[in-house]
Structure of 60S ribosomal protein L34:
Amino acid sequence: MSRIKKSQRTVARAYGGSRCAKCVRNRILRAFLTEEQKIVKRLKKAKAPLLLKKAKRAEKRKALKEKEQKEKLRKRDEENLARGRGGRGAKKIEEPKKPEKAEKPKKEKPKKEKELKKEKEPKKEKELPKEKEPKKKDE
C-alpha cells in the first residue's frame, strides 16, 4: 500500500470518498442541517393555519374591548346629561351671533415724493464691460 499514490488510497465512507476526518465531519453536518431545514419548513407550513386563527381571535377580542369601552362611555355621558352635568358629546348652547360690521375700504396714503420719483424713473440695468478687441496692425 505504501507504493500506491495517495489519491488512489480512497476509503469508502458513508458521506462520500473524503479522506480526512474534518471533511467527513463537515459533510455530516451539512447533511444534518439540510434535513433539519426540510423538517422545520414542514412544521412551519403545518402551523400557519393555527397562527392565523390565533391572530383572528386576538383581533376579535380587541374589537370587542373597544366596542365595550365606547358603550361604557356613551352610558356615562347619558347619565351625566340626565343629571345636568353635560358629557363629552354634549352640545354647547350657542349664543346668537352678532351681525358683522361691513368692512370699510382702506384709504390709500398719499405717496411721498421719493416713492413717486422711483416709480417714474425706469430701472437702469448694469452694463457689462465691453470686451476689448485686439488691435489690428496696419501693413
Summary: Residues 46 and 56 are 17 Å apart (CA to CA). The first helix runs from residue 21 to 83. The chain has a mean pLDDT of 76. The radius of gyration is 47 Å.
